[in-house]
Amino acid sequence: MSGGFTFVFKGEKGEKKLMEKMRKTYDRMDMLENARDEARACLQQAAERAIKKAELPKPNTEDGKLPDFVVEVPGDASHGDLAANLALVSAKAFGLPPRKIAEAIAAQADTRGMFKKVEVAGPGFLNLFYDDAFFGSIVICACVTGEDYGRTNVGGGEKVNVEFVSANPTGPMHLGNARGGALGDCLAEALAWAGYDVSREFYINDAGNQIAKFGLSLAVRYLQIVRGEENVPFPEDGYQGDDIRERAGEFYDIHGDAFAGKPQEELERALIDYALPRNISDIKEHLARYRIGYDVWFSESALHQSGAVDAVVQKLAEKGATYEKDGAVWYKATEHGGDKDEVLVRANGVPTYFAADIAYHADKFERGFARAIDVWGADHHGHVARMKGALDALGLDGSRLDIVLMQFVRLVRDGEPVRMSKRTGKAITLTDLLEEVPVDSARFFFNMREPGSQIEFDLGLAVAEDSDNPVYYVQYAHARICSILRTLEGEGITLDMPRAFGCANFPVADEERALIRRIAAFPGEVAAAAKGYDSARITRYLIEVATAFHKFYTNCRLKGEEEMLQQARLALCMATKHVIHNGLGMLKVDVPERM
RNA sequence: GCGCUGGUAGCUCAGCUGGAUAGAGUGACUGGCUACGAACCAGUAGGCCGGGGGUUCGAGUCCCUCCCAGCGCACCA
Q1: Which ipTM value was assigned to this complex?
Q2: Which of residues 65-124 of A touch strand B (CB under 7 A)?
Q3: Of A26-35, A273-282, A513-522, where does the model show the most confidence?
Q4: What is the spatial distance, in angstroms and rounded to an integer, between the CA atom of A445 and the C1' atom of B64?
Q5: Distance between CA A161 and CA A196 in Å, rounded?
Q6: Residue A280: which H helix or E strand, with range?
Q7: For labelling, which of A55, A259, A294, A393 has a CA lying 20 to 30 Å from the CA of A540?
Q8: Which residue's C-alpha is at the least distance from the C1' of B69?
Q9: Could you tell me the distance in Å between the CA of residue A80 and the C1' of nucleotide B43?
Q10: What mean pLDDT, rounded, does chain A reach?
């Protein structure tokens, strides 16, 4: 319970003191949640009073209490600011029609100064309307908390690890990485805003079969340069990308044919040692250009070298979760919810990717993370259950690992599908994408839809799309606000908080109320995005805020308006500016003052 | 065959733990700048929510079944 709201701003002396009071009052910052609690309590007590006064019979439930009910924000503003289904769900308990119950409750409702009225509507909904003062206090809250508006502590400081992209270092990043990067980075940001202690991590797959294949492919390209392409056949399953040729070419430019006579193994080793660090640093650079940075770059090979992989296999064996067959060590996945058992150590003694990944995730929990979130391509979905199961088998609660599965990006150019396979060598890379599409658009676009939906990215459209792009719609709202602020400032008018809060008749327009409702929803939206691992909520929300602002802008004026109302509207503009600034900031999209 | 995702307006997608006449954007059509930025706003048209059963006061939402699409089912990662 929030302890109620006290609307005493009018008599307050001094902005500083006022600010302090505001910060205390709105410590929880999510005023909508507070309002929900207030509404719930208001109705619950009203129902209890009605029973006491025998306006309603005693509820015929097992524990004699009222049934659970929902307080929600109705989609239609004419249904109030909050709506409760208390009367509907307790129809049986009272043995009365819902509308009758609702009327009895509404008659007893003490609106606590927060609500203007409680209305009975439809089949028996109880609709509550905010008092104007509450609308005003939401604006104040957003203004006072400013660049922190939207932060909550629903995460309680829990340590969370978010691993995303983790692109294969054998080649350039593709569109899936672009989507995963935007999604993962924004999710991490939303989690941080919701009060989690977030660490961003990139897992470098610098070991295993694909590195061997990488070495082989490089070696063949190198030998082709030395001996002629027609004299050295390229392996069927090698990496055919041009990037491999380029790396081999660079290596040749440095060493000439000095390595041509060396044993294959030595040649491959030298090529890997040359190319891998360069690929990794390219990945870092390209991600930085995409505005993504990591707290930790975790190397798979380090897990092998430290013996962590062997240790985890050993530990699984001690738990009785393994057996040997055909010379390989198998994990009993079927005993932990899997469809079939999995190989941990091959007959040739080399551990599988799966074994390394178990060791990797075990390591995350050993580093003190309460939760690990991985953003994976949907093609890895088969890996989810067995990964969790393996953690369970180790005695590390596998439910602490959450996987965000991301469907593929179907790339299209002028209506024609473009192959994304690394092996065709024709894949569009992240860098290609960013050459055609601004980072703002790409990051916004990839965060517009839920990870689970497969999306189509039309390159031709993305380039032409500049002014139709929703990101500009949101940015434009911000630029418009800045423009108003500049204009008024030119007339010597700036926001004076105590004065703005002193406006007795505010809000006056429906557009103002609609905008304030959206502003009030911000902390809850961020928290929901964090808890539901759904950063798309934020982009959708920002579009809603921009819409509400544009409507407000066309219907409500500031310039030439009466001073108190002008101040109140100035505060509303400022509140909106903070929301857009903070929201776009989470997406790491620019917040332009002019455009 | 088994499993994971998804199927909502012409197109791209929302729809929160079941709730009030199913919503946006875009495309089509019609209006609105002598007032703070028209990269904007207002209006019209457009729907057996994949099909069929069931659960209940009430289902796009939950259960069963079928159909369709993408993906996965390696001693690859």
Answers
A1: 0.93
A2: 70, 72-76, 78-80, 83, 85, 88-89, 91-92, 121-123
A3: A273-282
A4: 38
A5: 10
A6: helix A264-289
A7: A294
A8: A454
A9: 25
A10: 87
Tokens matching residue A592: 């332009």
For the cut 90, the answer to whether the pLDDT of residue A260 exceeds it is: yes
pLDDT confidence bin for A197, thresholds 50/70/90: very high
Instruction: List all residues 6 or more positions away from A427 whose beta carbon is below 8 Å from its beta carbon.
Output: A172, A174, A175, A241, A419, A420, A421
Query: Is residue A382 over pLDDT 90?
Result: no
Closest nucleotide over all strands to A122 (CA to C1') = B20
A478 is near strand B: CB distance < 7 Å: no
Residue A341 near residue A332 (C-beta atoms within 8 A): yes
pLDDT at A72 over 50: yes
Say if residue A507 is preceded by a cis peptide, omega within 30 of 0. yes
- Tell me the pTM: 0.91
pLDDT score recorded for residue A314? 95
Q: Rounded to 5 degrees, what are φ and ψ at A412? A: -130, 140
Q: Is the CB of A379 under 7 A from strand B?
A: yes
Label residue A156 left, alpha or beta by phi (over 0 means left) and psi (-120 to 50 means alpha). left
Protein residue nearest nucleotide B56, by CA to C1': A89
Alpha-carbon span A203 to A165, nearest angstrom: 8
**Helix, strand, or coil (residue A160):** strand
**How far is the C-alpha of A339 from the C-alpha of A383, rounded, in Å?**
11
Cβ contact A214 with chain B strand, < 7 A = no
Burial class from Cβ neighbours inside 10 Å (0-12, 13-18, 19+) for residue A438 reads middle
Q: Which protein residue's Cα is closest to nucleotide B15 at C1'? A: A75
pLDDT value at position A424?
43
More confident of the two residues A579 and A57: A579
Cα separations in angstroms, A274 against A256, A543, A561: 14, 47, 68
pLDDT for A421 equals: 42
pLDDT tens for A435-448 read: 878 899 889 989 98
Say how far apart CA A238 and CA A251 lie, in whole Å: 18
Please give the backbone phi and psi of residue A543, each rounded to the nearest 5 degrees, phi first: -65, -40
- H helices, E strands: number in chain A: 22, 15
d(CA A455, CA A369): 32
Quote the pLDDT of residue A19. 60
pLDDT value at A368 more than 70: yes
- Within residues 417-476 of protein chain A, the ones with CB less than 7 A from nucleic strand B are 448-450, 452-456, 466-468, 470, 472-473, 476
CB A552 within 8 A of CB A512: yes
- Give one DSSP letter per residue of A479-494, joined into a string: HHHHHHHHHHHHTT--
pLDDT digits (tens, 9 = 90+) for A318-337: 999 999 999 999 999 888 87
Q: What angle do CA A447, A448, A449 make, to 5 degrees?
A: 95
The single residue listed with the structure tokens 């509907």 is: A88
For residues A358 and A311, the answer to whether their CB atoms sit within 8 Å is no
Q: Judge if the beta carbon of A553 is closer than 7 A to nucleic acid strand B.
A: yes
Q: Nearest residue to B37 (CA, C1')?
A: A480
pLDDT at position A568 over 80: yes
**DSSP class of A399:** G
- The more confident residue out of A280 and A11 is A280
